[in-house]
Specification:
With 229 residues, this protein is mostly beta strands. It has one domain: Pseudouridine synthase. Helices cover 13% and strands 33% of the residues. It contains three helices and twelve strands, in the order ββαββαββββββαββ. The strands form two sheets. Strands 1, 2, 3, 4, 5, 6, 9, 10, 11 and 12 form a ten-stranded mixed β-sheet that branches. Strands 7-8 form a two-stranded antiparallel ribbon. A hairpin with a 2-residue loop joins β11 and β12 (194-199).
């Protein structure tokens, strides 16, 4: 695997390399799909081979992104996401405190105005999200999300529904900031019967520095937390 050159790859960093897949650290501001300067086409040009994203991150979300390097791996890994067998967790920051410190949010996400989505009480194809929150520093709240589904704008809409829109996400009511404060911090999945676990704290964003967790902080091992049901 070639060494990643950040200037050529819009700040992307290689987190883990395998013969059949890679895990990258996606910076905010780079879309996964599209016509130009996306994760997929930049990687394909640089590596001179096809890559297959196994899930999605919003353009302004940073963190762990899993991409297969062949069709066989793509089928196996994408199926795990479809069957909800992948453990994935996200950090967020808000300037508002949600109505409760932990819980589960269930409901359909439907298109609204101007490309936005909204949470409804219907459950035809419901999104499922668990969350914890805690104080970060005066005026700011840290959020830890565990989504079971991966629908468009899911965590951004859920944060708004909790009364705690993400900082840097004005589309959904968040205050302006140096970035959108949502980061994919943890991925755990099986490939060919072997378990892979990846942890990645956020590196960009002034307020994310307050989420640099000590080794004994339980949020560093989110799969072991007593999640709401």
């Amino acid at each position: 695997m070639k060494k990643f050159e950040e200037q050529e790859l819009a700040g992307m960093k290689l987190h883990f390399s395998h013969t059949d897949f890679i895990v990258i650290d996606k910076p905010p501001g780079v879309p996964v799909h599209g016509e130009h300067n996306t994760v997929v086409n930049l990687l394909q040009l640089y590596l001179q081979r096809e890559v297959f994203p196994c899930h999605r991150l919003d353009k302004d979300t940073s963190g762990l992104l899993l991409l297969a390097l062949n069709n066989t791996a793509a089928a196996e890994l994408s199926q795990q996401f479809f069957l909800r067998k992948v453990e994935k967790y996200y950090f967020g920051v808000s300037t508002a405190r949600p109505g409760k410190s932990q819980g589960k949010v269930l409901g359909d996400l439907k298109k609204s105005r101007n490309g936005n989505y909204k949470l409804t009480r219907e459950r035809n194809n419901p999104s499922v999200t668990f969350f914890f929150s805690r104080g970060l520093q005066p005026g700011y709240r840290a959020l830890l999300f565990k989504p079971l589904t991966g629908q468009t704008h899911q965590l951004r809409v859920i944060a708004k529904s909790l009364g705690a829109p993400l900082l840097g996400d004005p589309r959904y009511g968040g205050n302006n900031a140096d970035r959108m404060y949502l980061h994919a911090c943890y991925l755990q999945f099986y490939f060919q019967q072997q378990l892979y676990t990846h942890w990645l704290p956020p590196e960009t964003g002034d307020l994310f520095k307050g989420l640099l967790l000590s080794e004994d902080d339980p949020w560093r091992r989110p799969e072991q937390l007593n999640w709401p049901v």
